[in-house]
Amino acid sequence: MLRLVPGCLILTPLTLTMIKRSLALLAAVSTCFCGALAQQKSITIAVVNNPDMIRLKKLSSKFEEQNPDIKLNWVVVEENVLRQRVTTDVSQGSGQFDLVYLGLYEAPIFAKRGWLRPIENVPDSYDLEDVFKSIRDGLSYNGKLYALPFNAESSMLMYRKDLFDAKGLTMPEQPTYDDIVKFADALTDKSKGIYGITLRGKPGWGENMAFVDTLLNTFGATWFDMKWKPTIDTPEWKKAITFYVNLMKKDGPPGASSNGFNENLTLFGGGRAAMWIDATSGAGPLFDKNQSQVSDKVAFAPAPVAATPNGSHWLWSWALAIPKSAKEPDAALKFAEWATSKEYIQLAAEDGGWATVPPGTRKSTYDNPEYQKAAPFASVTLKAMQTADPTNPAIKPVPYVGVQFAGIPEFQAIGTEVGQNISAALAGKMTVEQALKASQNEVERAMKQGGYLK
Q1: For the domain with range 155-313+390-449, which CATH number is right: 3.30.70.1130, 3.40.50.720, 3.40.190.10, 3.40.30.10?
Q2: How much is the pLDDT for 39?
């Protein structure tokens, strides 16, 4: 105990013993706490800012509760920025990201260059065979899987059945682009802020060119002939791009050259567009009453066709991959398995309803009666995915694989350059002829630099 003496403090032996014990206990607690912090693994995840990813970020707190030794850091950016940052990180091996969001275009190209870690030792409980084979194959290289698919999609036509009924219009079982022009003209009512159609215009190989490529395909155009000579200065390209620009200028919303997937989702979901041709993954948010003002007014049809059905609708998957330079690959794989599992799909259904779960990846989702009941677009999505053929995207023979892209490393750059020119034509900054001439020259130059042409 303490004895007080004027001007000083005297510690008795008993007091010294008590203090020593307290200090020892404090040291033990501190060591335990510091050890727990040292054992916690932090992983950084780069993803796109679409509705599915926003929900994943929100629900990932469940994963952290189940795995207190793993902390998740999120980098959520728009599509073009994501692609630039991911490509830079994995190609330079900077190790900024432990897990990245990429797709069917990047996975085999990045894997071939040794930039990704193969996905190995996936537990039986994950049920990899439940994932659609076409998606697994698209995310593989030399027989090895390099990414786990979070969602998958094709493209289709989404339209307002109430507006069609009011005008006495009937959507054909397989619409054509001639039908689209007639419908858009009839449904545009700019005095009420309703546009007949909205389509992607924001430049980027995965933004405006995702749609434009399918338009080019069905109009009979190709990117290259069998000798890798660019074919952008052909009548088929001019016809397709002229059609697109004229349609959007007459019946599209203002500022269309700045609209990508998210912007068009907002326009259509806000009741400002009668038709929208885009990713099948947009259907879920449109059926979500919390996100969409037209959730009870949406109907679906296959993507329109023109001269040929070849390549009229795309095939894509957003997937989670682990860069070779990842600092915490094991923790990253654990989260990727959780985020793409059957259990996560169930969790997403409990959070937002079955119509909003990540689509396109698992057979069990489409076999689920609850999903079939909640998602009337499911059968259209599945048929579109099953009939999209990346090996036969055009009416003419081509040397590349891919519907809304050409599966060569150079396409990321040339697709974006051409997308910028077409977006400029849409904005009225150049003519279609000028846009195509500039694109032909730029792509020819890139193909010579890449060794495809002499």
Answers
A1: 3.40.190.10
A2: 78
- Which residue is it, tokens 């994501």? 82
Q: Compute how many other C-beta atoms are within 10 angstroms of the C-beta atom of residue 191.
A: 6
For residue 298, pLDDT over 50 is answered with yes
Given CATH 3.40.190.10, say whether it is the number of domain 40-153+316-374: yes
Please give the C-alpha separations between residue 129 and each of 124, 133, 135, 369, 389, in angstroms, as whole numbers: 10, 8, 11, 20, 21
Sequence ranges of the chain with CATH classification 3.40.190.10: 40-153+316-374, 155-313+390-449
pTM for the full predicted model? 0.89
pLDDT greater than 80 at residue 2 = no
pLDDT digits (tens, 9 = 90+) for 147-187: 999 999 999 999 999 999 999 999 999 999 999 999 999 99
DSSP-derived secondary structure for 286-343: HH-TTT-TTTTSEEEEEPPBSS-STTSS--EEEEEE-BTT-S-HHHHHHHHHHHTSHH
Residue with tokens 């409990």: 350
Q: Note whether 297 and 161 are within 8 A (CB).
A: yes
Quick check: helix, strand or coil at residue 176? strand
Burial class, 424, CB count within 10 angstroms (exposed 0-12 / middle 13-18 / buried 19+): middle
Mean pLDDT of 94-112: 97
pLDDT tens digits for range 28-51: 444 444 444 457 899 999 999 999
Do 414 and 443 touch, CB atoms closer than 8 A?
yes
| Cβ-contact 433, 447 below 8 angstroms | no
Sign of the torsion angle spanned by Cα atoms 317, 318, 322, 323: positive
